[in-house]
Amino acid sequence: MENSATFNPLFGTTHSPVNAHFSKNASDFVVRENPLYEFSRSGEHLVVEIQKKDLTTSDALGILSRQTGAKMRDFGYAGLKDKEGMTTQFISFPAKFEQALSNFSHEKLKILSTTRHNNKIRIGHLKSNHFFIRLKKVMPSEATKLKEALKNIGNNGYPNYFGYQRFGKFGDNARSGEEILNAGLSGNKSMMRKFNPKLRDFMISAFQSELFNKWLSKRVEMSHFAGEFSVKELENIYKIDKAKATQIKSQKQFFRLIPGEVLGHYPFGKVFLCEDLDAEVAKFVARDRTSMGLITGGKAYESVGFAKTIEDEIFGEAYKFGKFMNGSRRFAWAWLENLEYKYNEEVAQFTMSFTLQKGSYATVVLREILHREIFDE
């Protein structure tokens, strides 16, 4: 199993696993980046829209660097794209190198379009990603399950876990990140120098990501329990009073909000505390805001009350590393946009497409749809 050492969080859905074959190749997994803003069409930066397969973003930049003479630090991009599949994204670099692309040709990298812009593209300058996924060997009975799962997730949303990509082939990135943080805490400089700064930061982010997944899995568990157990049972399970248990139990949507947690305007906007629970639940159901899970570290917006108690159970041991990590908040619950799907019984193939906000993983959504670990095959 590719991610066997990684914590596998709870599913938000309850349907049985779907039997379908998924291969993350250029024909069956396609990603198209949607930029955060329109490019100005003028300026000193050239913006190229590239299409790549079997290449990481870094691989693609290396190819463009060798072709143009631009240095790696000259390139700008909104986010990293996977090596597997067919991916399209926007890259910027100084326009003075444009002429060097006139005869560009590469079997795994194409330039789809070029334009100009005033500024270098920066990490995060990304609105969303659009995904196309093809599943094979899908029998009619499994196609019916897929349709029902997609309707459910399309209506109710999904837990926005970090995907397996964060945790490494053997699922040990988070453990390495924790070791680095412990070394920093104990003053072990040799251990801190074992990794280059970028790799060190990535390992630490994997540690933060695993804690986020554990916390979100706990919240998904609470949401399942709220639908299955009585108010009295919820009081006993979570050691809360009747009023809080009733607030959680009485909500009609699957993912329950809790007073004192951090919320954020969806899909963009400021974070704030959940104070008027009834009002915020109504806006959550309208997809106007969502729960914001903790990326533990310094300067993260803090929750209060019962919400803080839940966070402390998961993140408490990591608070000591606060000075080594930048804290933030991340959507805990998110929704699909532009969802479409189709079943071709003749070739036993099921295709789907949808748009996800930046930072969300299509493999996480597919795991939820198939209701199993997708790389166990």
Would you give an account of this structure?
The protein is of the alpha+beta class and 377 residues long. Among the domains are: 37-124, TruD, catalytic domain (Pseudouridine synthase); 164-334, 2-Layer Sandwich (Pseudouridine synthase). Helices cover 33% and strands 23% of the residues. The chain has helices spanning 57-68, 140-156, 173-186, 189-192, 197-228, 231-238, 242-249, 277-285, 305-315, 362-370; strands at 29-35, 45-53, 76-77, 86-94, 109-117, 126-135, 158-159, 262-265, 271-273, 289-295, 328-331, 333-334, 337-344, 349-357. Strands 1, 2, 3, 4, 5, 6, 13 and 14 form an eight-stranded mixed sheet that branches. A four-stranded antiparallel sheet has the order 9-8-10-11. Strands 7-12 form a two-stranded antiparallel ribbon. The longest helix is centred in the middle third of the chain and has 32 residues, at 197-228. It is globular. The model has no long low-confidence stretch (mean pLDDT 94).
Give the overall silhouette: globular
| Biggest sheet descriptor | 8 strands, mixed
Counting copies of identical and different chains, the oligomeric state is: single chain
The strand count comes to 14
The percent range for strand residues is 15-25%
